[in-house]
Amino acid sequence: MVNKCVYCKIEVPEGRTMEICDRCGTKIWGEKMFCAIVEGTNKEKEKGNMELGQVSGLSTPPKKF
User: Fold this and answer.
1) Residue 26 forms part of a structural domain
2) Can you give the pTM of this predicted structure?
3) pLDDT per residue as tens digits for the range 12-58
């Protein structure tokens, strides 16, 4: 399935975590910030943290108040 940018509807690079193209992402956040966002989301995807309801690397369960 081909993902399309949520803003301009052009094709988004395959494997991208977010459905935002480079052109729109740079216009919205600026080049440096958009690169940091893409890099960060890709790292989290590799860890498995981008799947709904899953978080990896928790050593202890969260505290209940």
Assistant:
1) yes
2) 0.68
3) 988 888 899 999 999 999 999 999 999 999 898 888 887 766 555 55
In-domain check, residue 8: no
Does residue 60 belong to any structural domain of this protein? no
Question: For 39, left (φ over 0), alpha (ψ -120 to 50), or beta?
Answer: alpha
DSSP-based three-state secondary structure for 4: strand
Domain residue limits at 27: 21-51
Burial classification of residue 63, based on how many CB atoms lie within 10 Å of its CB (0-12 exposed, 13-18 middle, 19 or more buried): exposed
Residue 8 sits at φ, ψ, to 5 deg, of -110, -5
Considering its fold, how many domains does the chain have in total?
1
